[in-house]
Specification:
about 230 residues; globular; binds glutathione
Amino acid sequence: MQNTELDAVLSQTLEKARRNILTLVIGNKNYSSWSMRPWVVLTAFDIPFQEVRICLDQPDTDTNIAEYSAAGRVPVLIDGQLTVWDSLAICEYLAEQCSERALWPKETAARAVARSICAEMHSGFGGLRSAMSMDIRASYPGRGRTPEAQGDIGRICEIWEDCLSKFGHHEFLFGDFSIADAYFAPVVMRFRTYQVSLAPALQAYCDRVAAHPAVASWIAGALAETEVLPDH
Ligand SMILES: N[C@@H](CCC(=O)N[C@@H](CS)C(=O)NCC(=O)O)C(=O)O
């Protein structure tokens, strides 16, 4: 094959690869807890993707997000012509697309509980979310302990203890790292920032989550950011 033909084949292949690669639209890594979840899942399971980062709380944030999703929120996953929005829908889509990999636990009962705790996280824990928002770079020891946040912390500890002992063999929530751990990774970030004291087994779980390469890579990204969003 001549060099020019080779170049043409190569550029067609690259173009095809570029068009086929998943795109995840996210917010700031320091602040966007919802973005963190699918990003960690994609990274933990070695699913190739490119990221588009939109800075939150800016005059052009809404316009920038609207280019990808009419829902006006990140994260958004683009797969060719398909747009999937909302962190839980994205994780479900990824699990379906990569069914050969155990993004959800393999065993039926464990999978049902994993889905339950992710749904509980997705629809609840407003006390924790509003009083102790994710700010990975910061350190606010003892702040944000409203009664509602304390209640949420108690419930999260109960969930973790239950899953780690029943399904997790004291490793990740369901043994191997799964969507459930990615879903609780932003909580681990909050517990570090606000220095929530935990029972040793739960602290060890938090340390394992923070040390997971996908989570560590997100933290590194957050530390490299410089924007400060006081209202977020
Ligand atoms: N339920 C949604 C929540 C998404 C969400 O609230 N995202 C925030 C960032 S973490 C956002 O896009 N805010 C838009 C803005 O700040 O303008 C999900 O799970 O994806």
